Amino acid sequence: MAVEIERKFLVISDGWRAGADAGRILRQGYVAHDGDASVRVRLSGNEAWLTVKSGRTGLVRDEFEYAIPAADAAEMLDRLCADRVVGKTRYRVPHDGKVWEVDVFAGAVEGLILAEVEMHSVDERFDLPDWVGGEVTNDPRFRNSAIALLQGFETAD
Amino acid sequence: MAVEIERKFLVISDGWRAGADAGRILRQGYVAHDGDASVRVRLSGNEAWLTVKSGRTGLVRDEFEYAIPAADAAEMLDRLCADRVVGKTRYRVPHDGKVWEVDVFAGAVEGLILAEVEMHSVDERFDLPDWVGGEVTNDPRFRNSAIALLQGFETAD
Q: Which domains does chain B have, with CATH numbers?
């Protein structure tokens, strides 16, 4: 098991684009999601992963991730995830010694852009780029599983 | 993906024990379970598997199964599956050219014994051993995920 420590922010300007890589298109969905855990399948080109995460919202989450055949992932997305599939393009954006991941969502939540940064410890200090706005780490509306369920959200930060 | 075709029966006598192997103890739980799919973790000694199954009850189900580290499985059972864990001993019992699996459950459903047989096609014909009673293939109460939720059941066949 890995423990995932990450913080998540709304993106408020295009300032990140200058430093971003070419991005990669991801398709991901939730094969099951209940109070204790969510199970996500993610497909990116010929690579795919099945990920079990604990159901808590916030900074630190248990995460178990396994590479799986891309064909399996495609079948799960088509057959088991129903309408709980989101597409997004993920860009890597270096900033002040850390690599941020900026997710540009497509489909029903088009227009939503979120930035995540992984931390080594819960009290790590780092510089916030000026293109991020309000933090949504603890906001359940911005969990990927919630976005996949197309729950309503407001983009005010 | 594999398609799992199996039939499940109540066990009505100890007649299977004479032909059974030594059995192996399994601990399994559901990390997530909702309308479309269930995700099961199963631990047997040093081996473990994560299995995604479509939510339908009955003869034919989609199944995606991956071997995972036993340590991961133990952590998931302890941390994510909460009270949805069942223990059972699984015996292999050859009968008339097929190998039946007889599950003797422990814990809250102690006393329950079920027999499963895997089929090559939905219309395969095979001989029923005299120690099986009523078929429960299509009875949602006898799905493993339902048993894990400790839902009530009656053993009348």
A: 3-148 (2.40.320.10)
